[in-house]
């Protein structure tokens, strides 16, 4: 672990060029950005000031400074603003990169083999990981503790589902956590059970805490390594800023350590994990921007329900493939209002996870009630907004509500959504174009590590409604596709606006932060398949090169 940290620190130090914070010029580029109105602007050179901001965008024929302090000729390569992920989990990505990752497995048998191999190579006291998806395995059910025991029985194992809303444990882990047949389901959670009522191995949503409290907490050194691995991955994909949804106190301390050491390169718009976390970190108001505008806790993340994959998303009617189940509503109306009020009264931005149509209705109801009291630019956020009753869709255009959505969820979840909901409830599913038509602000992200943080795949999905295999032909419910430019805005200006950062990042222009990418192709001219294959050659943050492809 120490060697990993040292390598990552050395990698970042390599790219801290001596040109940092000097007046500079990058010339001979195919420069592209959106402006304040969402129109495409092209340029061939970009000037920077010492403060890391853009001084000017230069077109062909514009006069260049005779003797800039530094100059780079990019030989016609494409330059675009840094991409912004509107909804991610930075430390969760780092954990995924350093732990057992089952996201590529396509069968239970393949997963069990990978678990065995990992356990043999890692003599850890606990085997931790995640990424499994019983839908991808075509299992038709949740996996069991007995099946996991067949791979590892001598040590506790805990593996989170790909969406983070369920976990799979072996018998040893269940025993250490003290979970048994008499254990009742907690509020907002469910223990999957066998025919005799004993835990069968999977814990859903709120029930996960029954087991995770028994897992030893990672050390600060391990947290540092996880962050650096996540940052390296994000910068390599062209993500210069991300909303960090559900930041814990320990996450925040990790970011502060990295900032203190000069290793925080990307920008993090932090949303505290609940009211208490935000108050513990920030006190009675959002923090200022720290470390050269790279870190701020400005909001609070709340949960109204779970996820579709584990049937935890709260629906108005029963699941089509599980009669009698409507999912899990995590909070009563009064509880949700109370939490939102506690955050809003101290001017924190409120972001509420809502996937099912009933959960979305609950959050929209709360926003309507609170908007009578809490005026001004609140930018209420609904995270995911995946399944919405069509009659509730126009409500997203009111009170400045932001729909924070993830295009890759549509391409990953479409067949599951059809099974969970049936054909009659899909009209309000992943309704991006309707959101815009109703006047809602749209921010795009990936929900990494639930999905890959690759923004180019997300952008391609936004205007095609097709996956990497170009399926389904013509797109899934193609009437909800946005334009290519609107999709790009979702990952740049829209995501910046959603984080109260639109005057700083998301586009390039005089006075904006010089966060930009050098690409191997023009993303506005590339086919959807070629857009997905985009290679980031260099990533710059604040006019400093933060990452370069080797």
Please give a handful of descriptors for the protein shown.
550 residues; alpha/beta; 17 helices; 23% strand
Task: Describe it.
The chain has 550 residues and is α/β, with parallel strands linked by helices. 30% of the residues lie in helices and 23% in strands. It is built from 17 helices and 22 strands. The strands form three sheets. Strands 1, 2, 3, 4, 5, 20, 21 and 22 form an eight-stranded mixed sheet that branches. It has an eight-stranded parallel sheet with strand order 6-13-14-15-16-17-18-19. Helix 10 links the parallel strand 15 and strand 16 (349-354). Helix 7 packs across helix 8 and helix 14 packs across helix 15. The longest helix has 17 residues, at 220-236. It starts with a helix and ends with a strand. The model is unreliable at 10-21 (pLDDT under 50).
Please give a quick description of this structure.
By secondary structure, the protein is of the alpha/beta class. The chain has helices at residues 2-14, 90-98, 108-121, 145-149, 171-176, 209-212, 220-236, 249-260, 275-282, 333-344, 357-370, 407-421, 432-437, 455-464, 484-490, 493-498, 528-532, and strands at 24-34, 40-48, 54-58, 70-73, 78-81, 83-88, 100-101, 127-132, 157-161, 166-169, 189-193, 199-205, 239-247, 267-273, 295-303, 349-354, 381-384, 402-405, 441-444, 516-519, 536-541, 544-548.
Task: Please describe the topology of this protein.
Layout (H helix, E strand, L loop, with lengths): L1 H13 L9 E11 L5 E9 L5 E5 L11 E4 L4 E4 L1 E6 L1 H9 L1 E2 L6 H14 L5 E6 L12 H5 L7 E5 L4 E4 L1 H6 L12 E5 L5 E7 L3 H4 L7 H17 L2 E9 L1 H12 L6 E7 L1 H8 L12 E9 L29 H12 L4 E6 L2 H14 L10 E4 L17 E4 L1 H15 L10 H6 L3 E4 L10 H10 L19 H7 L2 H6 L17 E4 L8 H5 L3 E6 L2 E5 L2
Parallel strand pairs: 1-4, 1-5, 6-13, 7-8, 8-9, 13-14, 14-15, 15-16, 16-17, 17-18, 18-19
Antiparallel strand pairs: 1-2, 2-3, 5-20, 9-10, 10-12, 11-12, 20-21, 21-22
Helix pairs in contact: 1-7, 2-7, 7-8, 10-11, 12-14, 14-15
């Amino acid at each position: 672990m120490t060697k990993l940290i040292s390598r990552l620190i050395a990698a970042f130090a390599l790219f801290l060029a001596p040109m940092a914070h000097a007046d500079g010029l990058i010339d001979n580029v195919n420069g592209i950005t959106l402006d304040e109105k969402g129109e495409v602007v092209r340029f061939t050179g970009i000037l920077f000031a010492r403060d890391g901001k853009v001084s000017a965008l230069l077109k062909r024929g514009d006069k260049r400074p005779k003797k800039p302090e530094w100059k780079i000729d990019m030989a016609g390569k494409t330059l675009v603003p840094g991409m912004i992920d509107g909804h991610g989990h930075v430390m969760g990505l780092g954990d995924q990169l350093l732990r057992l990752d089952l996201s590529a497995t396509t069968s239970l048998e393949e997963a069990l083999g990978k678990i065995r191999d990992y356990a043999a190579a890692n003599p850890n006291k606990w085997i931790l990981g995640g990424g499994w998806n019983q839908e991808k395995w075509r299992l038709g059910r949740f996996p069991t503790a007995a099946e996991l025991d067949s791979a590892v029985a001598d040590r506790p194992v805990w593996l989170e589902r790909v969406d983070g809303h369920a976990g799979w444990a072996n018998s040893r882990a269940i025993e250490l956590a003290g979970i048994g047949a008499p254990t009742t389901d907690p509020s907002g959670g469910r223990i999957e059970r066998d025919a005799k009522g004993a835990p069968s191995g999977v814990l859903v949503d709120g029930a996960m805490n029954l087991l995770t409290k028994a897992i030893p907490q990672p050390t600060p050194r391990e947290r540092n390594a996880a962050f650096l691995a996540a940052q390296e991955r994000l910068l390599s994909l062209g993500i210069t800023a991300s909303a960090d949804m559900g930041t814990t106190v320990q996450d925040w301390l990790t970011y502060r350590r990295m900032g203190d050491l000069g290793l925080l390169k990307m920008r993090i718009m932090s949303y505290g994990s609940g009211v208490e976390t935000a108050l513990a970190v920030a006190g009675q108001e959002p923090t200022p921007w720290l470390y050269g505008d790279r870190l701020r806790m400005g909001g609070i993340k709340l949960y109204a329900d779970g996820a579709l994959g584990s049937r935890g998303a709260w629906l108005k009617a029963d699941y089509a493939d599980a009669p009698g189940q409507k999912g899990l509503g995590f909070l009563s109306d009064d509880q949700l209002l109370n939490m939102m009020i506690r955050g809003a009264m101290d001017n924190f931005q409120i972001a509420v996870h809502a996937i099912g149509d009933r959960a979305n209705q609950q959050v929209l109801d709360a926003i309507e009630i609170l908007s009578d009291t809490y005026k001004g630019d609140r930018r209420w956020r609904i995270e995911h907004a995946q399944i919405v009753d069509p009659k509730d869709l126009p409500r997203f255009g009111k009170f400045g509500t932001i729909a924070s959505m993830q295009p890759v969820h549509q391409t990953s979840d479409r067949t599951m959504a059809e099974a969970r909901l049936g054909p009659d409830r899909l009209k309000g599913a992943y309704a991006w174009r309707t959101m815009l038509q109703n006047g809602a602000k749209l921010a795009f992200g990936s929900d990494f590590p639930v999905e890959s943080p690759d923004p180019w795949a997300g952008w391609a999905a936004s205007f095609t409604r097709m996956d990497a295999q170009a399926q389904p032909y013509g797109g899934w419910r193609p009437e909800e596709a946005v334009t290519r430019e609107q999709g790009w805005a979702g990952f740049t200006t829209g995501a910046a606006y959603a984080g109260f950062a639109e005057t700083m990042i998301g586009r390039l222009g005089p006075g904006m932060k010089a966060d930009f990418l050098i690409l191997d192709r023009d993303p506005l001219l590339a086919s959807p398949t070629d857009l997905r294959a985009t290679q980031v050659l260099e990533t710059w943050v604040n006019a400093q090169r933060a990452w370069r492809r080797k």
